[in-house]
Design a protein that fits this description.
By secondary structure, the protein is α+β, with helices and mostly antiparallel strands. 24% of the residues lie in helices and 33% in strands. Keywords: Cytoplasm, GTP-binding, Methylation, Nucleotide-binding.
Amino acid sequence: MDRNEEDIQAGIQSLELDSQSNAVVSMEKVKRHLNVVFIGHVDAGKSTTGGQILFLSGQVDDRTIQKYEKEAKDRSCESWYMAYIMDTNEEERAKGKTVELGRAQFETENTRFTILDAPGHKDYVPEMISGASQADIGVLVISARKGEFETGFEKGGQTREHVQLAKTLGVAKLFVVVNKMDDPTVKWSKQRYDEIVAKMIPFLRSSGYNRQRDVQFLPLSGLVGTNMKSRVEISTCPWWTGPCLFEALDSVEVPLRDPNGPFRMPIIDKSKDMGTVVMGKIECGTIHEGDSLLVMPNNAHVNVMAIYCNENKVRHSDPGENVRVKLAGIEVEDILSGFVLSSIVNPIASVTEFNAQLQIIGLPDKALFSAGYKSKLHIHSVVDDCEIVALQRFDPTTNLPMRGQVHFAKNGDVVMCRIQVSNRICVERFANFPQLGRFTLRDSGKTIAVGKVTGLQI
């Protein structure tokens, strides 16, 4: 074969590779994308279950697993090795608990997932809120081990707070996985599984989840991967006839987002990489390379230079995707987490006060919720100090506002209020953009109220 023929042959092979590459991209594009947050009490097995998912879906090879097994054994913590896939920093591995919000990707037959592994310890609830605010669906991990479920579920346990926060932050569908079913204290006991389900259902209902429409229970073992990618063997668990975790996740139905609506992307992080790069999840609208947009609330006009999805450069991206966007017209130091990348024609509002409907769920001991009450506001990727300016109570039996202004509210009350924040922030009315209109108030390390924005003081 002469040089010309070699060049022709190489060109043909190159075209074939390009064609295969394009085919892969087009196949990926037909798969929907969902963010799934793993929540639950500390030590329930969230990171281990997440790590097992990545291993079973081919994201981690056997050699890496062997390395983690040795590392965990050297620490005398043999059962932690799967968690090392998600818990990547030294502090998390040394303590055996998640500190930061972990992030990873995997795919099922029809869906691309981004895992958001939320910390379970009460000291890191703000990180859990950050994960849940980005999520489409949730996996609540519960330990079936004797005593561990009870610790997480009793008052003060993170199972309860995580469920309430997930519902408030827009996690519409919840998979409740009863983990550690292979534990010697459980041994795939149907009685133990049924006991946990029976205790969880009334609480999930009181938190706003519809048992039939929104919640699905599954037994599994995150450590060894049973009932995760394939269904559990009848010899192991003769009473379970439902799906495995991968099947359940792949078939979940979630509300469609509007690709033609005004563009909204809360910024969760930023970096400098040959220009200014912002990261976030597209909540509404579609972004194209070359678009002119606004960074709010500082009203900065920017141009979209490049879009990256899963490290791949793309020309456009639809709602629901996690993307990195390279911008021209703004410096990194002029952007804060909580800012919003917004369309110019219909920009997001920026306010220092807004009206809200609020449910009080957990005031500190002896505290009264009244005008002047100060706490920490969490709304999409914003965290800011806030103060209650005025209150009006709702009648819990009629759900209608009661006449006159009230002076204080107590646990369980539903109130209308006006909230003032320390800095100008971007929010939307809940009725228009639910994901940008839900919020929580926290004080003294605990969630005291959940609410939704009803009006903007522009």
